[in-house]
Every structure is written in structure tokens, then in C-alpha cells.
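// run 5 | inverse folding | seed 20
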């Protein structure tokens, strides 16, 4: 390896380490009640022990940083692209729906406190709201596709598709998971309940 290639490789490693350090600092701030007041790029930079411009260089904006945090949470929570693709590769779309419920239940559980605070801040901060709304829209689109596949498979649905998507969207939300799980129930206990409720909403309770 040439000296130049080695230096470029080392620089890339350093950049990735810095990026990971900033994302973890963001997560730590959100997990700390004292970090919620005045959440900013400056506060993240202090937590990560880097310059403010380093955060901007890595993520461009607070929105970019929050997007990166959500991507990190998804990967750690087992909601990567491969897992999401697997939902739509199931021959039986109801199996795909069950898998979606399982994936989101595990994801919500993986960093529950940070997920809760991200959504709390989305209610008062437009940049948080933009990121969370975008993620929610992705879940809604996935449910819409699954519902179309369920109907195409010959299942008679209990209500218009638009209404059912709204119901499934609510059942698979963090807020519903957080309320149903309470302080003690785990994702593998909550997911079967959510799936049964989803089937009941579709008018397919007898297929569980």
C-alpha cells in the first residue's frame, strides 16, 4: 500500500470514528433529562468533545444529525434494510405483517427512552418533527403495500383500505407499544398482542 493510500485509509477511519462519537453523544444527551433543555448542535459538540464545526461538517445540520441518529437506532434495533426487505419477500402477506410487527416491536424496545424523547421533542421542535414524520411516513407506506398484498391474496377486509392503514399505523406506533408494554412487558410479549389486534381490525381474527 502506498503512503498516500494508507493516509487516506487512516483519515476515513478517523472520520467514521468521529461520526460515531457524535451520534453516540446525541443519544446520550437525549437519554439524559438535563440534556433535553436547549438541545443544540453546540450541546452535542460539547458532549462529544469536538468543535461545533466538526458536527456541521459531518452532518450539515441538526436535521442531518437526527437522521443519522435514527439510522443508528434502527440498525442497533434490528431494523436494517435486509430485515425490512424480508417483510415483502414472504409468500403470505399476513406472515409479512407479523414480521413487520415483530421488527417494530424490537426496534421500539431497543432504545425506548430515546425513542420516547425523540417523539416528545417532535411535538415542540420542527426539525425533530420533520425527521420523525419522515420515518412515520415510511412505516405507513410499508403498511399500505402489505394491505394491498393482503387484499390481492383474496382476503375480504372489514373496512376501506385507507381506514385500515390508519388503524395499523396506530397499532404499530411507538406510542402504542410504549403504553402496551408498560414497565415490565418485553417486545416478544407485546408483538403477538399487536398482531392479534391487527388481524381483528382487518376482520381476519380467525386466521391467527
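// decoded
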Amino acid at each position: 500500500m502506498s503512503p498516500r493510500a494508507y493516509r487516506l485509509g487512516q483519515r476515513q477511519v478517523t472520520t467514521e470514528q468521529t461520526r460515531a462519537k457524535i451520534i453516540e453523544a446525541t443519544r446520550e444527551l437525549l437519554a439524559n433529562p438535563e440534556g433535553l433543555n436547549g438541545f443544540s448542535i453546540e450541546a452535542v459538540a460539547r458532549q462529544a468533545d469536538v468543535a461545533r464545526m466538526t458536527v456541521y461538517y459531518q452532518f450539515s445540520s441538526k436535521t442531518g444529525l437526527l437522521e443519522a441518529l435514527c439510522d443508528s437506532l434502527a440498525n442497533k434495533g434490528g431494523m436494517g434494510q435486509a430485515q425490512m426487505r424480508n417483510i415483502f419477500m414472504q409468500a403470505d402477506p399476513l406472515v409479512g405483517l407479523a414480521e413487520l410487527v415483530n421488527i417494530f416491536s424490537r426496534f421500539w424496545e431497543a432504545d425506548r427512552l430515546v425513542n420516547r424523547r425523540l417523539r416528545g421533542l417532535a411535538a415542540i421542535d420542527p426539525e425533530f418533527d420533520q425527521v420523525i414524520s419522515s420515518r412515520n411516513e415510511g412505516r405507513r407506506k410499508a403498511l399500505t403495500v402489505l394491505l394491498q398484498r393482503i387484499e390481492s391474496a383474496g382476503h375480504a377486509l372489514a373496512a376501506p383500505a385507507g381506514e385500515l392503514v390508519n388503524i395499523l399505523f396506530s397499532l404499530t406506533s411507538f406510542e402504542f407499544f410504549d403504553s402496551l408494554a408498560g414497565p415490565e412487558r418485553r417486545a416478544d410479549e407485546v408483538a403477538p398482542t399487536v398482531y392479534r389486534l391487527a388481524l381483528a381490525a382487518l376482520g381476519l381474527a380467525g386466521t391467527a
